[in-house]
Amino acid sequence: MWKKEIIMSKFKKSVACIVTNFKKKWVHILGVWFTIAMSYLYFDGNISVAPKWILGFAGMVFTVLMLLKGKFHNIVGLMIVLSGCVFVFCTPIMDAPDETAHYARSLYISQGQVYLPENTQDAKISKDFIDVEENFKQPLNKTNLLSKPMSTEVYENTKLYATNASSFVPYLPQVTGITIARLFNQSVGVSILLGRFFNLLCYACLIWLAIKKAGELGVLFAILGLMPMSIYLAASFSTDAMANGLTFLVISLVCHFTQKSRVSVKDLIIFFVLCAILITIKLPYVLLIGLLLFIPIKQFEKKYMYFLGIVLIILAAILTVFWLKQSSHINSTVVTLDANPVEKIRYTLAHFNHFSREFYKELVNIIPNRIPSLFTFGWLTYGADKLSWFYLMFISCIVFMFPYTTKLPKLTRFGAVLVALGITGAILMTSYLMWSSVETIRFDGIQGRYLIGVILLGGVALNCSSLFLDTNIEIAECKIQKRNEFILYIALLFVLIAITLTILEYYGVRVQFVH
Q1: Which terminus of the chain has fewer CB atoms gathered within 10 Å of its CB, N or C?
Q2: Pairing relationship of beta strands 154-156 and 376-377 according to DSSP bridges
Q3: Helices and strands of the chain, counted as H and E runs
Q4: Residues near 436 by Cβ (< 8 Å), separated by ≥ 6?
């Protein structure tokens, strides 16, 4: 009986805690439902045929998010998982950018094939892909995939070659979901949901760990980790989930190193391994290892360890060359028929004046031209239009103006700027060499999602709140908590707007106005 009494006592305390939180957060909860209604109207949703069931589901999930209590990093981790689950269920089949190729590669790896075959005739994947492709961009509940058994037959498919720049590592979460579904004889639809969910869970864990390691700067990591585009991609088969999560974790380790009393050899090895994994996922971000050069020598246990960092940087450069050689020869023409990096370099050298001018313009214009696409979803097919500028204002305030009492050393901040510029330049050059024909000087295929890590580096390096505020003034813990709760609330509202936009795009009906 005493066990029953203990359980009942805990249950009553939990209910009382929820009721208390509800009373405190009723304005926030009201704001959730108001945001759903107003954003649905803003995007011209037809109220008379509104998809009430899925809008209600989103509203209930975000209502629960308003009632969460606990440590900051734990709350953010739960926010990513729960809000991402709405995307997992409501995002149509293969709606995320390049998700068909990522799904094909996940199927291929789930069959025990780790590396891409050099011969396209050996590129055989499950016939589940045929059923999925037939329902491209269809909501899952409007297809027969939830009742269709997973197939054991395979056929030749070359779409997975679009993932030739990635190793098997960023597909492990998705493969885990597919494998579990196959082991328990689940349907194709369930395998998609589980693949997406485990990808989301991996992203949430990496962001959770990054926030813990970042210390006071964890607020910046949390808000950028809660970017609607990041959660949307994590709730798909996209490798951007692991790429972004690892990027956040690597940058957070640099912040941790500058605040730690002594950096050990173990710390450097872990840092190197994470950067080495990034080589096989998002190659330009390998430049993050260069941040080791900008950690003050006094932070290391022994002075020779600084030179060990230089050795690790050289080793990472060697691995980069090896990976480029290993991945670039694997049927790159299947991906882009007109691409020829070698010939492109020769053409560029012959027209270097024109190239240098265009490169400079693209670098300067990358914010107005590329960053707004962070609020454009699908295969760049639907977005928040001018509403996205409110989100960019919010992010800018957090990046540049959020007050921190702890500042990174000037050397580290300077290094972060250099590395951010290097990564941006590498992204531009990758698109230039791989996504346009030889005799054109044009930068195609660049999307705002590629620059999420660069934005984080900008926040680490360029925060200038100390110019306007006295960051030495001590703030009460309760006020810090309220401040953090408020900015998390605003971040979640933008995620909710993105979810409402997706729901309207595929489940609702827009009102057609005659102009």
Answers
A1: C
A2: unpaired
A3: 21, 4
A4: 338, 339, 344, 442, 443, 444
State the Cα–Cα distance between residues 163 and 109, nearest whole angstrom: 12
**Residues in CB range of 392: below 8 A, 6 or more apart:** 371, 372, 374
pLDDT given at position 99: 94
d(CA 354, CA 51): 52
Nearest to 466, CA basis, from 418, 408, 417: 408
pLDDT of residue 238: 96
pLDDT at 332: 47
C-alpha angle 214-220-226 in degrees, rounded to nearest 5? 110
Per-residue pLDDT at 448: 87
Cα 320 to the center of its chain, rounded Å: 22
Return the SS3 of 156: strand
Q: Is 409 left (phi over 0), alpha (psi -120 to 50) or beta?
A: beta
Q: Which residues does the chain have with pLDDT short of 50?
A: 1, 331-335
Distance CA 235, CA 449 (A): 14
Joined together, the tokens standing for residue 503 give 């729901």
- For the segment 290-309, what is each residue's pLDDT rounded down to a tens digit? 999 999 988 888 878 888 99
pLDDT for the residue numbered 169: 94
Burial grade of 37 (CB within 10 A; 0-12, 13-18, 19 or more): middle
Residues 6 or more apart whose CB falls under 8 angstroms from that of 36 comprise 55, 58, 59, 496, 500
Alpha-carbon gap, residue 438 to 126, rounded angstroms: 36
DSSP per-residue codes, 237-265:
T-THHHHHHHHHHHHHHHHHHHHSS-B-H
Rounded Cα distance between 48 and 135, Å, is 27
Nearest to 234 by CA among 163, 173, 145, 168: 173
pLDDT tens for residues 185-219? 999 999 999 999 999 999 999 999 999 999 889 99
What φ, ψ does residue 418 adopt, rounded to 5°?
Answer: -60, -45
